[in-house]
Amino acid sequence: MVDVIESATFRRWIRGLRDRGAVARINARLRNVSLGNVGDVKAVGEGLFEMRVHHGPGYPATGSIACAMGTR
């Protein structure tokens, strides 16, 4: 299992998205990550990974959805 911790910055960012389909996909992606399925990620340094969400204009989410990989 992987802990997913949402920052206040992330919560503001996702609340501001108008594309409800993108919000649903991002939330589903985060749920999959919490279950251990990290999927399409790219290391960006210092234990942070970019999770790519392929939807609409693309949400590479660098800095918005960055995660430090670790297990419980």
Provide an overview of this structure.
The chain has 72 residues and is of the alpha+beta class. Helices cover 33% and strands 17% of the residues. The protein is built from two helices and three strands, in the order H-H-E-E-E. The radius of gyration is 12 Å and the shape is globular.
Main sheet: which strands, in order across?
A: 1-2-3
Low-confidence runs of at least 5 consecutive residues:
none
Give the N-terminus to C-terminus distance in angstroms. Answer: 6 Å
The portion of residues assigned to helices is 25-40%
Give the tally of β-strands. 3
Order of helices and strands: HHEEE
**What class do helices, strands and sheet pairing give?**
alpha+beta
Mean pLDDT: 75
Largest sheet: 3 strands, antiparallel
- The backbone outline, from C-alpha atoms, is globular
CA-based gyration radius: 12 Å
- Count of DSSP helices? 2
Strand content: 15-25%
Task: Please give a handful of descriptors for the protein shown.
three-stranded antiparallel β-sheet, alpha+beta, 2 helices, globular, 3 strands, 72 residues
Task: Describe this structure in a few short sentences.
This protein has 72 residues and is an alpha+beta fold.
Topology:
Elements: H1 8-16, H2 20-34, E1 41-45, E2 48-51, E3 66-68
